[in-house]
Amino acid sequence: MMPQDRYELLAQFIGIWMVFVICIVVCVEGVNFDADCSTNACTEDNTICNPEIALTETCTTPNPPDQCADTNAECVGDPLTCECKTAHFVNKDGACDPNVGLAGTCDSTDSATDQCSVADTTCRNDGAGDKCLCIDTHFSDGTGCQTKVAGLNTTCDGAVSATDQCSTAGTECKDDGTGTDRCLCKPTYYPDGSTCVLRSGVIKVAMLQYMYVVPFIISMMTLLR
């Protein structure tokens, strides 16, 4: 056989091999399938396009990773189902959303109890909008929620800037004069057993101011008639 014939035979062999390889790649990637897995709601499983799976529905294995319809869901559990990924919750629309941190914006109309990520928080309106805030029995230390200090004269942490760490009404955390921080009555209150009572002088001052304001309002209304 002439050298030229050998080169031609080798070229034909290489050509046939390349066609074979291209065919395998195209078939595995699903380009020639009736369904287009990159645009339709389906996932590639070797040579088959399967419909994506809804939340809480049974899935097969953790792979392929995109078999769950929600991009924030994954196939986990026993039995295997499509569930929200870690640090996510199911919102009122049935989709997976990221959990909300302390003081982060939330949706108080959503009944999901795990919407807020920090323990002992709840989604409520603070007057400036819906936020994940500490529940009534706890106060914020900036990063988490701590149990409020119960009882008058109980030791507290004066280094914490929270004004609501003392649970008794009319109290605040301050030095008791001996270098110990305690929950004591505010200046406008006085202790009465286990509670703090508003001083009568404060009420009198408020009433006195009110007595001056009322005649002024009446006079203004008379002039405007």
From TrEMBL:
Domain of life: Eukaryota
Keywords noted in UniProt: Membrane, Transmembrane, Transmembrane helix
Transmembrane portions of the chain: 9-31, 207-224
Protein name, UniProt field: FBN1
